[in-house]
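Lecture notes, unit on binding sites. The following record was shown on slide 14. It pairs a sequence with arginine.
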Amino acid sequence: MSKLWGGRFTKETNKLVEELTASISFDQKLAKEDIQGSLAHVQMLGEQNIISKEDADKIAKGLNVVGEKLEKGELSYSIAHEDIHMNIEKFLIDEIGPVGGKLHTGRSRNDQVATDMHIYLKNHTEEIIKLVESVQGAIVEQAEKNIDTILPGYTHLQRAQPISFAHHLLTYFWMLERDKGRLVDSLDRVNWLPLGAGALAGTTFPIDRERTAELLGFEHVYPNSIDAVSDRDFILEFLSTASIMMMHISRLSEELVIWSSQEFQFVELDDSFCTGSSIMPQKKNPDVPELLRAKTGRVYGNLMGLLTVLKGLPLAYNKDMQEDKEGMFDTVETVEGSLQLLAPMIETMVVNHDKMRLATNQDYSNATDIADYLVTKGMPFREAHEVIGKIVLDGIKQSKFLLDMSLDEFQKYSPLFKEDIFKVLTPEHVVSARNSYGGTSQSQVAKQIILAKDKLRKL
Ligand code: ARG
Protein backbone atom coordinates (compact mmCIF):
# COMPACT_ATOMS: atom_id res chain seq x y z
CA MET A 1 0.00 0.00 0.00
CA SER A 2 1.38 3.44 -0.87
CA LYS A 3 2.48 5.53 2.08
CA LEU A 4 1.53 9.13 2.75
CA TRP A 5 5.28 9.73 3.10
CA GLY A 6 6.29 7.41 0.23
CA GLY A 7 7.84 10.02 -2.12
CA ARG A 8 11.51 9.50 -1.30
CA PHE A 9 11.32 5.71 -1.02
CA THR A 10 12.05 3.19 -3.74
CA LYS A 11 11.22 0.00 -1.84
CA GLU A 12 8.21 -1.35 0.02
CA THR A 13 8.52 -1.36 3.82
CA ASN A 14 9.54 -4.71 5.25
CA LYS A 15 6.44 -6.32 6.80
CA LEU A 16 8.07 -6.83 10.19
CA VAL A 17 9.21 -3.23 10.20
CA GLU A 18 5.67 -2.20 9.44
CA GLU A 19 4.46 -4.20 12.43
CA LEU A 20 7.15 -2.82 14.70
CA THR A 21 6.64 0.81 13.78
CA ALA A 22 2.84 0.87 13.60
CA SER A 23 1.05 2.19 16.64
CA ILE A 24 -2.48 2.08 15.24
CA SER A 25 -3.35 -1.00 17.33
CA PHE A 26 -3.20 1.19 20.45
CA ASP A 27 -3.21 4.85 19.43
CA GLN A 28 -6.65 4.45 17.85
CA LYS A 29 -7.78 5.43 21.35
CA LEU A 30 -6.81 8.95 20.33
CA ALA A 31 -9.20 9.14 17.35
CA LYS A 32 -11.53 11.69 18.94
CA GLU A 33 -8.69 13.86 20.23
CA ASP A 34 -6.97 13.69 16.85
CA ILE A 35 -10.07 14.89 15.04
CA GLN A 36 -10.66 17.59 17.63
CA GLY A 37 -7.09 18.86 17.22
CA SER A 38 -7.39 18.79 13.41
CA LEU A 39 -10.68 20.69 13.47
CA ALA A 40 -9.10 23.50 15.46
CA HIS A 41 -5.98 23.48 13.28
CA VAL A 42 -7.93 23.67 10.03
CA GLN A 43 -10.19 26.42 11.31
CA MET A 44 -7.12 28.46 12.22
CA LEU A 45 -5.56 27.75 8.79
CA GLY A 46 -8.75 29.09 7.16
CA GLU A 47 -8.96 32.15 9.40
CA GLN A 48 -5.32 32.98 8.66
CA ASN A 49 -5.92 32.54 4.90
CA ILE A 50 -3.19 29.92 4.81
CA ILE A 51 -5.73 27.77 3.01
CA SER A 52 -9.03 29.08 1.56
CA LYS A 53 -12.12 29.25 3.75
CA GLU A 54 -13.90 26.86 1.34
CA ASP A 55 -11.14 24.29 1.64
CA ALA A 56 -11.11 24.68 5.41
CA ASP A 57 -14.87 24.09 5.52
CA LYS A 58 -14.62 21.06 3.25
CA ILE A 59 -11.91 19.59 5.45
CA ALA A 60 -13.85 20.29 8.65
CA LYS A 61 -16.97 18.64 7.22
CA GLY A 62 -14.89 15.70 6.01
CA LEU A 63 -13.30 15.28 9.43
CA ASN A 64 -16.72 15.22 11.06
CA VAL A 65 -17.91 12.57 8.61
CA VAL A 66 -14.79 10.50 9.30
CA GLY A 67 -15.49 10.87 13.02
CA GLU A 68 -19.08 9.67 12.62
CA LYS A 69 -18.06 6.76 10.41
CA LEU A 70 -15.40 5.71 12.89
CA GLU A 71 -17.94 5.81 15.69
CA LYS A 72 -20.30 3.58 13.71
CA GLY A 73 -17.45 1.19 12.98
CA GLU A 74 -17.70 1.78 9.23
CA LEU A 75 -14.00 2.35 8.68
CA SER A 76 -11.14 -0.01 9.36
CA TYR A 77 -7.68 1.04 10.31
CA SER A 78 -4.70 -0.14 8.36
CA ILE A 79 -1.28 -0.83 9.80
CA ALA A 80 0.22 0.31 6.50
CA HIS A 81 -0.81 3.81 7.57
CA GLU A 82 1.10 3.36 10.80
CA ASP A 83 -0.74 5.46 13.32
CA ILE A 84 -4.00 7.20 14.12
CA HIS A 85 -2.86 10.48 12.56
CA MET A 86 -2.09 9.07 9.14
CA ASN A 87 -5.05 6.71 9.17
CA ILE A 88 -7.38 9.63 9.77
CA GLU A 89 -5.67 11.74 7.12
CA LYS A 90 -6.06 8.87 4.67
CA PHE A 91 -9.76 8.45 5.56
CA LEU A 92 -10.20 12.20 5.04
CA ILE A 93 -8.57 12.14 1.61
CA ASP A 94 -10.69 9.11 0.67
CA GLU A 95 -13.75 11.03 1.82
CA ILE A 96 -13.18 14.46 0.23
CA GLY A 97 -10.39 13.97 -2.29
CA PRO A 98 -6.94 15.59 -2.59
CA VAL A 99 -8.05 18.78 -0.82
CA GLY A 100 -7.84 16.68 2.39
CA GLY A 101 -4.08 16.78 1.87
CA LYS A 102 -4.14 20.47 2.84
CA LEU A 103 -4.97 19.62 6.47
CA HIS A 104 -1.35 18.87 7.33
CA THR A 105 -0.18 22.35 6.22
CA GLY A 106 2.04 23.94 8.86
CA ARG A 107 1.85 20.89 11.09
CA SER A 108 3.85 17.74 11.78
CA ARG A 109 2.84 14.50 13.40
CA ASN A 110 5.26 15.47 16.15
CA ASP A 111 3.23 18.44 17.37
CA GLN A 112 0.03 16.64 16.41
CA VAL A 113 0.65 13.59 18.60
CA ALA A 114 1.80 15.70 21.54
CA THR A 115 -1.41 17.72 21.17
CA ASP A 116 -3.59 14.61 21.12
CA MET A 117 -1.90 13.37 24.30
CA HIS A 118 -2.43 16.72 26.02
CA ILE A 119 -6.14 16.74 25.09
CA TYR A 120 -6.56 13.13 26.23
CA LEU A 121 -4.82 13.65 29.54
CA LYS A 122 -6.59 16.93 30.25
CA ASN A 123 -10.00 15.29 29.83
CA HIS A 124 -9.12 12.20 31.81
CA THR A 125 -7.43 14.11 34.63
CA GLU A 126 -10.65 16.08 35.05
CA GLU A 127 -12.64 12.83 35.02
CA ILE A 128 -10.31 11.22 37.58
CA ILE A 129 -10.64 14.23 39.88
CA LYS A 130 -14.42 13.69 39.89
CA LEU A 131 -13.98 9.99 40.61
CA VAL A 132 -11.62 10.73 43.51
CA GLU A 133 -14.31 12.96 44.91
CA SER A 134 -16.89 10.21 44.70
CA VAL A 135 -14.63 7.95 46.77
CA GLN A 136 -14.07 10.75 49.24
CA GLY A 137 -17.85 11.20 49.43
CA ALA A 138 -18.30 7.50 50.22
CA ILE A 139 -15.63 7.72 52.93
CA VAL A 140 -17.29 10.73 54.57
CA GLU A 141 -20.65 8.97 54.47
CA GLN A 142 -19.26 5.90 56.27
CA ALA A 143 -17.33 8.11 58.67
CA GLU A 144 -20.47 10.00 59.67
CA LYS A 145 -22.12 6.72 60.62
CA ASN A 146 -19.09 5.57 62.62
CA ILE A 147 -17.94 8.44 64.80
CA ASP A 148 -18.81 6.37 67.88
CA THR A 149 -17.53 3.07 66.52
CA ILE A 150 -14.42 2.18 68.46
CA LEU A 151 -11.74 -0.23 67.33
CA PRO A 152 -8.12 -0.84 68.20
CA GLY A 153 -5.70 1.45 66.43
CA TYR A 154 -2.47 -0.27 65.43
CA THR A 155 1.19 0.50 65.05
CA HIS A 156 3.46 -2.29 63.79
CA LEU A 157 0.11 -4.14 63.41
CA GLN A 158 0.14 -4.45 67.22
CA ARG A 159 -2.73 -3.00 69.20
CA ALA A 160 -1.71 0.56 70.12
CA GLN A 161 -4.58 2.82 71.25
CA PRO A 162 -8.30 2.60 70.65
CA ILE A 163 -9.60 5.00 68.01
CA SER A 164 -12.80 6.00 66.31
CA PHE A 165 -13.43 4.06 63.10
CA ALA A 166 -14.48 7.31 61.44
CA HIS A 167 -11.06 8.75 62.29
CA HIS A 168 -9.33 5.77 60.75
CA LEU A 169 -11.40 5.94 57.55
CA LEU A 170 -10.95 9.69 57.20
CA THR A 171 -7.21 9.14 56.98
CA TYR A 172 -7.86 7.92 53.44
CA PHE A 173 -9.99 10.99 52.74
CA TRP A 174 -6.97 13.21 53.39
CA MET A 175 -4.60 11.03 51.40
CA LEU A 176 -6.99 11.25 48.46
CA GLU A 177 -7.36 14.98 49.04
CA ARG A 178 -3.61 15.38 48.49
CA ASP A 179 -3.78 13.12 45.43
CA LYS A 180 -6.55 15.31 44.09
CA GLY A 181 -4.42 18.39 44.80
CA ARG A 182 -1.57 16.86 42.80
CA LEU A 183 -3.94 16.13 39.90
CA VAL A 184 -5.30 19.68 39.97
CA ASP A 185 -1.74 21.08 40.04
CA SER A 186 -0.70 18.87 37.16
CA LEU A 187 -3.42 20.41 34.99
CA ASP A 188 -1.31 23.58 35.00
CA ARG A 189 1.29 21.68 33.00
CA VAL A 190 -1.20 19.78 30.81
CA ASN A 191 -2.88 23.02 29.86
CA TRP A 192 -0.11 24.01 27.39
CA LEU A 193 -0.66 23.45 23.68
CA PRO A 194 2.21 22.00 21.59
CA LEU A 195 0.42 22.43 18.23
CA GLY A 196 2.20 24.87 15.92
CA ALA A 197 5.64 23.62 16.93
CA GLY A 198 5.83 21.72 13.63
CA ALA A 199 8.38 18.93 13.43
CA LEU A 200 10.64 20.80 15.88
CA ALA A 201 11.45 24.31 14.67
CA GLY A 202 8.10 25.97 14.01
CA THR A 203 6.65 26.62 10.56
CA THR A 204 7.06 29.02 7.64
CA PHE A 205 3.29 29.63 7.55
CA PRO A 206 1.74 32.60 9.42
CA ILE A 207 -0.14 30.41 11.91
CA ASP A 208 -1.89 31.78 15.01
CA ARG A 209 -1.10 29.41 17.85
CA GLU A 210 -3.02 31.41 20.42
CA ARG A 211 -6.15 31.02 18.31
CA THR A 212 -5.73 27.24 18.05
CA ALA A 213 -5.21 27.14 21.82
CA GLU A 214 -8.38 29.15 22.34
CA LEU A 215 -10.35 26.83 20.05
CA LEU A 216 -9.12 23.78 21.96
CA GLY A 217 -9.58 25.31 25.40
CA PHE A 218 -5.87 25.42 26.28
CA GLU A 219 -4.63 28.21 28.52
CA HIS A 220 -1.12 28.55 27.08
CA VAL A 221 1.02 27.57 24.11
CA TYR A 222 4.49 26.08 24.54
CA PRO A 223 6.88 28.97 23.98
CA ASN A 224 9.67 26.73 22.65
CA SER A 225 8.88 24.58 19.62
CA ILE A 226 11.63 22.06 20.41
CA ASP A 227 10.42 21.65 23.98
CA ALA A 228 6.83 21.27 22.77
CA VAL A 229 7.63 18.11 20.80
CA SER A 230 10.48 16.69 22.91
CA ASP A 231 9.11 16.13 26.35
CA ARG A 232 6.56 13.89 27.93
CA ASP A 233 6.99 15.15 31.46
CA PHE A 234 3.29 16.01 31.63
CA ILE A 235 2.61 12.28 31.26
CA LEU A 236 5.30 11.37 33.78
CA GLU A 237 3.72 13.74 36.26
CA PHE A 238 0.37 12.05 35.79
CA LEU A 239 1.95 8.61 36.16
CA SER A 240 3.71 9.70 39.36
CA THR A 241 0.54 11.10 40.84
CA ALA A 242 -1.33 7.98 39.79
CA SER A 243 1.37 5.81 41.42
CA ILE A 244 1.07 7.66 44.70
CA MET A 245 -2.71 7.44 44.54
CA MET A 246 -2.64 3.72 43.77
CA MET A 247 -0.29 3.25 46.74
CA HIS A 248 -2.98 4.84 48.91
CA ILE A 249 -5.72 2.75 47.31
CA SER A 250 -3.59 -0.33 47.84
CA ARG A 251 -3.15 0.37 51.55
CA LEU A 252 -6.88 0.85 52.01
CA SER A 253 -7.48 -2.34 50.03
CA GLU A 254 -5.03 -4.22 52.22
CA GLU A 255 -6.93 -3.10 55.31
CA LEU A 256 -10.24 -4.17 53.78
CA VAL A 257 -8.75 -7.60 53.09
CA ILE A 258 -7.45 -7.89 56.67
CA TRP A 259 -10.63 -6.55 58.23
CA SER A 260 -12.84 -8.96 56.32
CA SER A 261 -10.77 -11.99 57.39
CA GLN A 262 -12.21 -14.50 59.86
CA GLU A 263 -9.56 -13.40 62.35
CA PHE A 264 -10.71 -9.77 62.37
CA GLN A 265 -14.32 -9.75 61.13
CA PHE A 266 -14.34 -5.96 61.45
CA VAL A 267 -16.16 -5.40 58.16
CA GLU A 268 -18.12 -7.44 55.70
CA LEU A 269 -17.91 -6.48 52.05
CA ASP A 270 -21.13 -6.64 50.09
CA ASP A 271 -21.71 -9.93 48.24
CA SER A 272 -21.76 -8.05 44.95
CA PHE A 273 -18.10 -7.09 45.51
CA CYS A 274 -16.84 -10.56 46.41
CA THR A 275 -16.42 -13.87 44.63
CA GLY A 276 -16.54 -17.52 45.62
CA SER A 277 -14.23 -20.48 45.31
CA SER A 278 -14.52 -23.20 42.69
CA ILE A 279 -13.88 -25.87 45.33
CA MET A 280 -14.55 -24.50 48.82
CA PRO A 281 -18.27 -23.78 49.13
CA GLN A 282 -17.92 -21.65 52.25
CA LYS A 283 -15.56 -19.08 50.71
CA LYS A 284 -16.34 -15.43 50.14
CA ASN A 285 -13.18 -13.84 48.81
CA PRO A 286 -12.35 -10.13 48.78
CA ASP A 287 -11.11 -10.22 45.18
CA VAL A 288 -11.85 -6.59 44.48
CA PRO A 289 -9.54 -5.07 47.10
CA GLU A 290 -6.98 -7.77 46.34
CA LEU A 291 -6.95 -6.78 42.68
CA LEU A 292 -6.86 -3.07 43.43
CA ARG A 293 -3.83 -3.79 45.62
CA ALA A 294 -2.23 -5.75 42.78
CA LYS A 295 -3.04 -3.28 40.02
CA THR A 296 -0.84 -0.76 41.80
CA GLY A 297 2.07 -2.76 40.38
CA ARG A 298 1.22 -2.07 36.76
CA VAL A 299 0.88 1.65 37.42
CA TYR A 300 4.33 1.77 39.06
CA GLY A 301 5.60 -0.26 36.09
CA ASN A 302 4.16 2.25 33.63
CA LEU A 303 5.90 5.11 35.46
CA MET A 304 9.24 3.28 35.47
CA GLY A 305 8.76 2.28 31.83
CA LEU A 306 8.30 5.83 30.58
CA LEU A 307 11.03 7.30 32.79
CA THR A 308 13.36 4.76 31.22
CA VAL A 309 12.17 5.41 27.65
CA LEU A 310 12.85 9.13 27.99
CA LYS A 311 16.07 9.13 29.97
CA GLY A 312 18.64 9.06 27.16
CA LEU A 313 16.81 10.80 24.33
CA PRO A 314 18.53 13.59 22.46
CA LEU A 315 16.32 16.50 21.38
CA ALA A 316 13.91 16.68 19.65
CA TYR A 317 11.35 13.99 18.68
CA ASN A 318 12.50 10.37 18.61
CA LYS A 319 10.42 7.38 17.63
CA ASP A 320 11.04 6.02 21.12
CA MET A 321 8.41 8.48 22.27
CA GLN A 322 5.67 6.45 20.61
CA GLU A 323 6.12 4.11 23.60
CA ASP A 324 4.52 6.74 25.84
CA LYS A 325 1.00 5.67 25.01
CA GLU A 326 0.14 2.21 26.23
CA GLY A 327 1.35 2.93 29.77
CA MET A 328 -0.65 6.14 29.88
CA PHE A 329 -3.85 4.52 28.58
CA ASP A 330 -3.39 1.58 30.90
CA THR A 331 -2.86 3.86 33.88
CA VAL A 332 -5.89 6.01 33.08
CA GLU A 333 -8.05 2.91 32.68
CA THR A 334 -6.66 1.26 35.82
CA VAL A 335 -7.11 4.33 37.97
CA GLU A 336 -10.59 5.11 36.66
CA GLY A 337 -11.68 1.50 37.06
CA SER A 338 -10.28 1.27 40.58
CA LEU A 339 -11.93 4.47 41.76
CA GLN A 340 -15.24 3.47 40.19
CA LEU A 341 -15.23 0.26 42.23
CA LEU A 342 -13.92 1.74 45.42
CA ALA A 343 -16.76 4.21 46.01
CA PRO A 344 -19.65 1.70 46.02
CA MET A 345 -17.56 -0.91 47.83
CA ILE A 346 -17.00 1.51 50.71
CA GLU A 347 -20.62 2.67 50.68
CA THR A 348 -22.00 -0.86 50.88
CA MET A 349 -19.59 -2.45 53.35
CA VAL A 350 -21.12 -3.49 56.65
CA VAL A 351 -19.19 -2.33 59.68
CA ASN A 352 -19.19 -4.80 62.55
CA HIS A 353 -19.28 -2.40 65.51
CA ASP A 354 -19.53 -5.14 68.13
CA LYS A 355 -16.47 -7.04 66.91
CA MET A 356 -14.44 -3.84 66.81
CA ARG A 357 -15.56 -2.75 70.26
CA LEU A 358 -15.00 -6.21 71.74
CA ALA A 359 -11.44 -6.22 70.44
CA THR A 360 -10.67 -3.10 72.48
CA ASN A 361 -11.75 -4.92 75.67
CA GLN A 362 -9.23 -7.61 75.06
CA ASP A 363 -5.96 -5.77 74.90
CA TYR A 364 -3.69 -3.39 76.76
CA SER A 365 -4.36 -0.44 74.48
CA ASN A 366 -5.49 1.74 77.39
CA ALA A 367 -2.02 1.52 78.97
CA THR A 368 -0.96 5.00 77.79
CA ASP A 369 -4.04 6.48 79.44
CA ILE A 370 -3.21 4.89 82.78
CA ALA A 371 0.30 6.31 82.54
CA ASP A 372 -1.25 9.72 81.71
CA TYR A 373 -3.48 9.26 84.79
CA LEU A 374 -0.44 8.90 87.06
CA VAL A 375 1.08 11.95 85.38
CA THR A 376 -2.01 13.99 86.31
CA LYS A 377 -1.45 12.79 89.89
CA GLY A 378 2.08 14.23 89.80
CA MET A 379 4.31 11.33 88.68
CA PRO A 380 6.85 12.10 85.90
CA PHE A 381 5.77 10.40 82.63
CA ARG A 382 8.92 8.27 82.31
CA GLU A 383 8.34 6.82 85.80
CA ALA A 384 4.64 6.26 85.07
CA HIS A 385 5.60 4.41 81.85
CA GLU A 386 7.77 2.03 83.91
CA VAL A 387 5.04 1.42 86.52
CA ILE A 388 2.38 0.65 83.90
CA GLY A 389 4.83 -1.57 82.02
CA LYS A 390 5.15 -3.67 85.18
CA ILE A 391 1.36 -3.83 85.62
CA VAL A 392 0.98 -4.94 82.00
CA LEU A 393 3.64 -7.63 82.46
CA ASP A 394 1.84 -8.88 85.55
CA GLY A 395 -1.47 -8.83 83.66
CA ILE A 396 -0.01 -10.88 80.82
CA LYS A 397 1.28 -13.45 83.33
CA GLN A 398 -2.14 -13.73 84.97
CA SER A 399 -4.08 -13.46 81.66
CA LYS A 400 -5.81 -10.37 82.96
CA PHE A 401 -6.46 -7.12 81.09
CA LEU A 402 -6.11 -3.70 82.71
CA LEU A 403 -9.87 -3.25 82.48
CA ASP A 404 -10.36 -6.29 84.72
CA MET A 405 -7.98 -5.29 87.53
CA SER A 406 -9.13 -4.15 90.96
CA LEU A 407 -8.10 -0.98 92.80
CA ASP A 408 -6.02 -3.10 95.22
CA GLU A 409 -4.08 -4.55 92.34
CA PHE A 410 -3.36 -1.07 90.92
CA GLN A 411 -2.40 0.27 94.35
CA LYS A 412 0.22 -2.46 94.76
CA TYR A 413 2.17 -0.49 92.15
CA SER A 414 1.43 3.06 93.25
CA PRO A 415 -0.55 4.72 96.04
CA LEU A 416 -1.53 7.42 93.54
CA PHE A 417 -4.20 5.13 92.09
CA LYS A 418 -7.69 6.05 93.36
CA GLU A 419 -11.26 4.99 92.57
CA ASP A 420 -11.37 7.48 89.61
CA ILE A 421 -8.93 5.24 87.68
CA PHE A 422 -11.91 3.20 86.47
CA LYS A 423 -13.32 6.18 84.59
CA VAL A 424 -10.09 6.50 82.65
CA LEU A 425 -9.86 2.85 81.64
CA THR A 426 -12.79 2.38 79.29
CA PRO A 427 -12.16 2.51 75.56
CA GLU A 428 -14.88 5.18 75.24
CA HIS A 429 -13.01 7.40 77.66
CA VAL A 430 -9.67 6.66 76.07
CA VAL A 431 -11.04 7.81 72.71
CA SER A 432 -12.92 10.88 73.94
CA ALA A 433 -9.92 12.02 76.01
CA ARG A 434 -7.78 12.42 72.86
CA ASN A 435 -9.28 15.77 72.18
CA SER A 436 -6.22 17.56 70.84
CA TYR A 437 -6.67 19.12 67.38
CA GLY A 438 -6.72 16.33 64.77
CA GLY A 439 -7.10 13.68 67.49
CA THR A 440 -9.53 10.78 67.60
CA SER A 441 -12.08 12.15 70.10
CA GLN A 442 -15.64 12.16 68.86
CA SER A 443 -15.79 15.95 68.89
CA GLN A 444 -12.52 16.31 66.95
CA VAL A 445 -13.72 13.76 64.40
CA ALA A 446 -17.02 15.62 64.00
CA LYS A 447 -15.02 18.80 63.29
CA GLN A 448 -12.89 16.89 60.81
CA ILE A 449 -15.99 15.72 58.96
CA ILE A 450 -17.18 19.32 58.61
CA LEU A 451 -13.77 20.23 57.18
CA ALA A 452 -13.85 17.26 54.81
CA LYS A 453 -17.32 18.15 53.53
CA ASP A 454 -16.14 21.67 53.01
CA LYS A 455 -13.30 20.40 50.80
CA LEU A 456 -15.78 18.41 48.72
CA ARG A 457 -18.01 21.43 48.22
CA LYS A 458 -15.12 23.61 47.08
CA LEU A 459 -14.36 21.94 43.77
N1 ARG B 1 2.92 7.59 16.09
C1 ARG B 1 3.90 8.58 16.41
C2 ARG B 1 4.03 8.68 17.94
O1 ARG B 1 3.15 8.23 18.58
C3 ARG B 1 3.51 9.90 15.88
C4 ARG B 1 4.64 10.83 15.61
C5 ARG B 1 5.45 10.29 14.50
N2 ARG B 1 6.46 11.18 14.05
C6 ARG B 1 7.46 10.79 13.32
N3 ARG B 1 8.30 11.69 12.97
N4 ARG B 1 7.61 9.55 12.97
O2 ARG B 1 5.00 9.15 18.43
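Take-home: The first strand starts at residue 150 and ends at 155.
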